[in-house]
Design goal:
By secondary structure, this protein is an alpha+beta fold. It folds into 2 domains: 12-133, Archaeosine Trna-guanine Transglycosylase, Chain: A, domain 4 (Roll), CATH 2.30.130.40; 141-217. 31% of the residues lie in helices and 24% in strands. It has 6 helices and 8 strands, in the order E-E-H-E-E-E-E-H-E-H-H-H-H-E. It has helices spanning 36-47, 141-158, 164-169, 172-182, 187-195, 199-212; strands at residues 12-17, 28-33, 55-59, 80-91, 97-112, 120-125, 161-162, 225-226. The strands form 2 sheets. A 5-stranded mixed beta barrel has the order 1-3-4-5-6. Strands 7-8 form a two-stranded parallel sheet. Strand 4 (80-91) and strand 5 (97-112) form a beta hairpin. Helix 2 (141-158) packs parallel to helix 6 and helix 5 packs antiparallel against helix 6. The chain is globular, with a radius of gyration of 19 Å. The chain starts with 11 loop residues before the first strand and ends with a strand.
């Protein structure tokens, strides 16, 4: 199922709070579902009608408060998540569900609904974020060049290599989605990438994160390749 900017977005969605998970508009996130509450969530999303059909919100829980007491089962959430549409659904013999979520649009959490299910649900606010559904224009050429230069230095520092033919042939958004998803950024850094205003801002954020990263660079020609 494809998303169209003319299709309505759900006013409330079930959410999957998962630390370190990053779903961006037009990105793809595979998930291995095995907890009973999230098995229920996925089955309910598949059975939902209207705008909520096959829709799940991916969002990160906030880090525990220093010196505070948070309910481990109901951690506070970041304000911004991303709506995803289930595009692949497979049940395994051992009771798990394997799904793929295609990123549709970011949302802000307006409120959390009273718990009537095992999983959590939030009221969604898309104000100022609906442009996520429109493919972005190209990056400025200088920014794209800076991004590739930063990627080269970052991979050298991390002891990784890249298929540079694939990098150069990737469109701007695909490259940024891939790098944001596969680079080992901290949860707060992933959240910064999610909350970036637009593709240009996300590219600049990505470049900054790569420039700040520290890691060994041994120059080993056999180092693994980032695909």
């Amino acid at each position: 199922m494809s998303d169209s900017p003319s299709e309505p977005l759900p006013a409330a969605v079930p959410v999957f709070p998962l630390t370190g998970a990053l779903l961006l508009p037009r990105g793809l996130l595979p998930l291995n579902i095995f907890e009973p509450r999230y098995l229920d969530m996925v089955r309910d999303a598949m059975a939902a009608t209207g705008a909520a059909n096959r829709m799940i919100g991916m969002i990160q829980p906030r880090p525990p408060r220093r010196g505070g007491i948070d309910d481990a089962d109901v951690p506070p959430l970041y304000d911004v998540g991303c709506l995803g549409r289930i595009t692949d659904f497979r049940e395994t013999d051992d009771g798990r569900i394997l799904i793929a979520l295609a990123g549709v649009c970011r949302f802000r959490v307006s409120a959390e609904l009273e718990r009537t299910k095992l999983y959590r649900q939030v009221v969604t606010d898309y104000h100022g974020l609906s442009d996520d559904r429109d493919p972005p224009g190209p990056l400025p050429a200088t920014l794209r060049a800076d991004l590739e230069d930063g990627l080269r230095a970052y991979l050298d520092a991390q002891g990784l290599a890249a298929d540079w033919d694939a990098v150069r042939s990737s469109d701007d958004e695909s490259l940024i989605i891939t790098l944001a998803s596969v680079c080992p950024f901290a949860p707060a850094e992933r959240q910064a990438l999610l909350e970036a205003r637009d593709l240009t801002d996300r590219a600049r954020t990505l470049s900054a994160l790569m420039s700040f990263a520290q890691g060994p660079g041994d120059g080993d020609p056999e180092r693994p390749t980032l695909q």
